[in-house]
Amino acid sequence: MGRADPEEGQLPAPVKPPDGGWGWIVLFGCFVITGFSYAFPKAVSVYFKELMKDFHVGYSDTAWISSIMLAMLYGTGPVCSIMVNQFGCRPVMLIGGLLASSGMILASFTTNIIELYLTAGVLTGLGMALNFQPSLIMLGTYFDKRRPLANGLAAAGSPVFLSSLSPLGQVLLEKFGWRGGFLIMGGLLLNCCTCGAVMRPLDMGMKRKMEKAQDKYEAKEMLPIGGKSEEGISNTDGTKKAKKAKKKPKKGKKLLDFSIFSNRGFIIYTISKFILVLGLFVPPILLVNYAKDTGVPDTEAAFLLSIIGFIDIFARPACGMVAGLKWVRPHVAYLFSFAMLFNGLTDICSARASNYTGLVIFCVFFGISYGMVGALQFEVLMAIVGSQKFSSAIGLVLLIEAFAVLIGPPSAGRLVDALKNYEVIFYLAGSEVVLSALFLAMATYCCLNRGKKKESSPEKNPSAGGGSDTEEAESDVQEVDEHSSDNHQPAHNTDNAMVAASEEANHVAEEQSGEGGGCPERDREVLAQDGCDADQTVERHRF
Predict the structure, then answer these.
(1) Residue 421 half-sphere exposure, CB side, CA atoms within 13 Å?
(2) Tens digits of per-residue pLDDT, 67-89?
(3) All domains of the chain, ordered by start, with CATH?
(4) Do the Cβ atoms of 137 and 89 come closer than 8 Å?
(5) Dist. CA 469–CA 279, nearest whole Å
(6) CA dihedral in degrees (418, 424, 428, 433; nearest 10)?
(7) Contact, 291 vs 283, CB < 8 A?
């Protein structure tokens, strides 16, 4: 209920998620894609020192490479949503894998920083975007009851790849230079094509066939065998066709659903994520160079990202399991707020870390909090908008976050160049994350209270469109009730007419029996015929 047909511009009703089976293969593919998408922009920071020497640029200039990658990952969200709704997830992911790989390969031949922006930044970032978003959509298609756990396991790909790509990048930099490292990284990104190939879509047509067969079977079971059953089935089909004809004004296929902006929960989530992204990615991007500037050897500085990744590996699945608990899942937005608050306070409390031990402690707590945020961010969005509108919602959210990505890390890099002080950057980034956590918790609480007041007086305050499955189901129930009440009215009228006719017939029969004449045969036939027709009419209307 509440789902439109494809010709009406909406996605078809999906088959029930299997919560397993081939879904575990899809989960592994999503694990790899998430690892490359999130870890790659951070792992590239290992090459920044060499790039600064070769191209004679500042740190803020090299920081734009990671920022452009993340901006393309987020900013091309609506384009990716349109392509997925038009062509499907698998073809889009195959194209994305080729673009991501070719971008890094071409980057190894660049001669200036602008060419590096266009290849490693724009082209590779676009390719990763065309892989990342469809993989999340497929994950939501294959999992429902186990979706929090699936999201946590898929999100664990980011720390796993971060803990491996960062040391690997350091080794490649020492043996082959940054050009050879970029070339080999481009070859690794071809694995995205393999992950795209396993994204097998669920059969959408099977459910419609089963529902049609079930409707006919129920019609045959409800009506007696013979002409009435055939007539009942034809009436049922006619009713369905009439409903489709009523709902058919939208003929164009809706490639991007903007109706989700009427959902207050979606608006709150989007604003909170924008503030969060301003400061979330700054510490891991600056961490390696901060450690090097404090006198930490290059190998040990790169190992700090591995510590974050190692802790993050266990934090994300564990947080996904907690979010899947029955008493936690309805309040997952508050758990997400707590994760953001934890992350922001970690940045603020660790701003004065000036030795390697202090940086290691920071990495441990940052890994836990960062893993919680990564495991919950898309689970909360799925819970707000539902699986049917998730493809459009994630594209629009990522587009809005792209502006924050373009502002956050480059601004932090420029402040580092100007102030030569990392402490201010950590304070600023942590404050932004804390602000996003407080905004999400307070706004969600206020909306929940307002929603409870509306539930107490549903007649005076009808629900203002949120696009959720529950609201669509309620509107459909009201429509069905109105339709059924219209159908029952003639049935009651027929019942009253039949009762009046039978009473009149009994009165005539009593008079004739008192006179000794009895009821004529012709009158009995007429009354019997009238009664039969009334019964048939009542039975049809009740069906």
Answers:
(1) 7
(2) 788 778 878 888 888 888 888 88
(3) 16-216 (1.20.1250.20), 257-452 (1.20.1250.20)
(4) yes
(5) 33
(6) 130
(7) no
